[in-house]
DNA sequence: CATTCTGTTTGAATCGTTTCGACACCGGTT
DNA sequence: AACCGGTGTCGAAACGATTCAAACAGAATG
């Protein structure tokens, strides 16, 4: 692979001149510049990323860290990130899993967008302390090098609960996220508040995991103790889908015996029948806002923590309770 | 950020000794080694990726290039890649879009997995010529630094067509992929062969794009010229979904007036109603096989091009034609 | 003709690693 | 006492770029 040195030799100039020419510095004559660029093309020259970031201490690459590559949810988010980052002159790469943590540590990126519970809070604070710039989407962290962009989880959970209650439901199962999930905690807090304000509703909490299996397990439990119509608030859509999967094998009918609402409005929710009621928000905007914040931190501009607003999506998976 | 130099100073040894210690070389005394490692921990030392890859000319990172981050399809594929790569000591990062081509060019990765039509064949051959190691999943390319792992498109397309024909369908629309797509070409070749073998079937080709909008457009056309039950082979599931979206707003009934089969068996296909008939294959295996091949190329081991086998998924979106 | 100025080019240092060859030390042979 | 092989450590060069400060040319000035 051709290096700056090869170009210099071929052009009969010093490597510094080549570097200046390649970077469009005004110092070098138009003529020399043109000649150098021509030779660079001819040699198929491409700057070496490692060498450049070693010297400049920047790579113009942002890393997004997700727990997995599974589709539905992250597509729009990443698209939002990508869009704004490109515009700001950065590139986006996506990493997943704890093995990839090293990529963050090794300063491969100028900053990172984190929506990944496989990082602990301490780890992230530690990284920030070492000079890494981060925006977190799944927790609150106080550090000059960290900012967060969070969903309005509480509003969403309240909307969902009130929707069920308004339609007359009084026995409501809530399937939670995994232990320690910030989103789950926030949503549960709002759930409990809402329940407290409505003394006649019975709320049964079932521990979940934000995955389909958790929804299936919860569905099994609910089916087992079934004794008349109930409502279920799955703290995310994935679990709601899991519950659908399980219930479709029973003779319990969704939207009649069991009324389900989710959270996230993933793509699948729109296609399953009955269509899943859920809480919606713009994943694209979330990604793009987070990216903007990150670039601001990198460029040393002031930032404030932002919040993503949510809306209720009514659908056939939740119907009014039949007055007996 | 602490560097090897800081450790050397603090330990009172040379930087080479530190480097040897950090890399577990047997040359350095256990005692010195322990001391150095302790100091490294204490200083929160993390090796600098740029410096290391500059010197070693390897990063132990593989890049996967996809046209977009949209979910359904790529999740399993990436998981398959990730799994084998990790096992071989490599990390995976995912890139998307033409802006990211530079990441490949700049030698950030030790190799790349390509399923991305935004690269042209010439580009890829050019990269290979410059020493980049590639495995392509969406075309055939002959070069010592390139290998391909392809679907058995022809078998899949034949299976789909024969399924329709066996069930009595004689008027079959085929919605193609975009101009220039290798997969589309392959599938179409098999379609035409099958049609030739069955002189009584009428086959109407509609140009598509492998996206939902293409399926919608095709659906519109088919609905407009509707004159009795027809079958449709959408060359991928995304377009089939788009067609569902459109047709659900008409009074044409799927699995009765219009019988649809897709290709890819993406997650959504399992959830839409009627369930979409389609061609299935293991995306995970595809990813893992491609990764294995790539590592072999990198390590200079011999490789042969591989093929991924496909199977037919029968489902309610295709029913036998009613004998009048 | 010497001097200053402007504009272009260059040499050298640097970023953080790895790695080769040199070297000093030590116990054990001759 | 001279020699040897092995072991542990070190210095220096290298990877490919950027960038500061110095050098240099040629034109313009006095």
The count of helical stretches of chain A stands at 13
Rg of Cα set of chain A = 26 Å
Could you tell me the strand content of chain A as a percent range?
15-25%
Oligomeric state as shown: homodimer
So what's the CATH class of the largest domain in chain A?
Answer: Alpha Beta
Q: How does the overall form of chain A come out from the CA principal axes?
A: elongated
Distance between the termini of chain A: 79 Å
Question: Any guess at the CATH architecture of the largest domain in chain A?
Answer: 3-Layer(aba) Sandwich
Q: What is the CATH superfamily classification of the largest domain in chain A?
A: Response regulator
Q: Structural class, judged by helices and strands of chain A?
A: alpha/beta
Overall domain count of chain A: 3
Biggest sheet record of chain A: 6 strands, parallel
How many strand elements of chain A? 12
């Amino acid at each position: 692979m051709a290096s700056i040195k090869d170009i210099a030799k071929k052009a009969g100039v010093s490597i510094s001149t080549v570097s200046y020419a390649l970077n469009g510095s005004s110092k070098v004559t138009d003529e020399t510049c043109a000649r150098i660029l021509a030779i660079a093309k001819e040699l198929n020259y491409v700057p070496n990323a490692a060498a450049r970031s070693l010297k400049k201490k920047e790579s113009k690459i942002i890393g997004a860290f997700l727990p997995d590559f599974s589709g539905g949810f992250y597509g729009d988010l990443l698209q939002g990130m990508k869009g704004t980052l490109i515009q700001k002159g950065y590139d986006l790469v996506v990493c997943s899993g704890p093995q990839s943590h090293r990529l963050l540590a090794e300063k491969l990126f100028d900053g990172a967008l984190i929506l990944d519970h496989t990082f602990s809070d301490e780890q992230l604070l530690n990284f920030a302390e070492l000079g890494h710039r981060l925006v977190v989407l799944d927790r609150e962290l106080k550090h000059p090098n960290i900012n967060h962009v969070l969903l309005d989880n509480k509003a969403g959970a309240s909307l969902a609960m009130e929707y069920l209650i308004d339609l007359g439901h009084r026995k409501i199962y809530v399937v939670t996220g995994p232990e320690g999930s910030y989103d789950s905690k926030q949503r549960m807090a709002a759930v409990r508040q809402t329940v407290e304000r409505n003394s006649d509703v019975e709320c049964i909490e079932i521990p979940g995991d934000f995955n389909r299996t958790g929804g299936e397990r919860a569905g099994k439990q609910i089916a087992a103790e079934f004794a008349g119509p109930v409502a279920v608030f799955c703290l995310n859509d994935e679990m709601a889908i899991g519950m659908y999967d399980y219930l479709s094998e029973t003779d319990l009918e969704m939207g009649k015996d069991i009324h389900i609402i989710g959270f996230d409005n993933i793509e699948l929710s729109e296609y399953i029948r009955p269509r899943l009621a859920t809480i919606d928000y713009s994943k694209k905007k979330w990604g793009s806002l987070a990216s903007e914040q990150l670039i601001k931190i990198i460029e040393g501009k002031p930032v404030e923590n932002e919040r993503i607003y949510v809306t209720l999506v009514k659908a056939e998976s939740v119907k009014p309770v039949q007055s007996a």
